[in-house]
Amino acid sequence: MNIVFFTSNRLLADSLTAGLRGRAGISTVKAVDSFSALREILATARLDLVLFDVTPGIDWDKVRSLAGDYPHLALLALGPKEQRHEVVRRGRDVFLDYIARNTTIEELCSAMSAAVQEWLAYSPESRVRSSGRFFASIPSFTNPFRTKASRDTEKK
Known about the structure:
Blueprint: E1 2-6, H1 10-20, E2 28-32, H2 35-44, E3 49-53, H3 60-69, E4 74-79, H4 84-91, E5 97-100, H5 105-120, H6 133-136, H7 148-155
Parallel strand pairs: 1-2, 1-3, 3-4, 4-5
């Protein structure tokens, strides 16, 4: 699994990068602090996942643009429990999961691996992120970004 962390927090980037290097199933771990740096990597390397640190705030338009330009890429959000509701509200159409910052490295690895496996199991045509329709098409995938309203709509 090839991973990039998107964060402006250098300590977090260095800690996650060091903590994940050499782990089974993870071959590349890099950190970036800008969308231009992320797009440079995407132009030359095949990534499986980007983990966004949403704590300092994030440019939602750029995240959506990235998701549209790279439909093969699994996107996860990382932040404090207290920020979960806001990120779920604004990011349910682009992020596969929200990971709390107090998660252990083992739990983080499991969540990233599960997200990539689930995402790659579907054809690009079925990976519709818009309005969370991708998640609605996968009954077994538990997505915290799906709202109660979208779950109610599925039942009708």
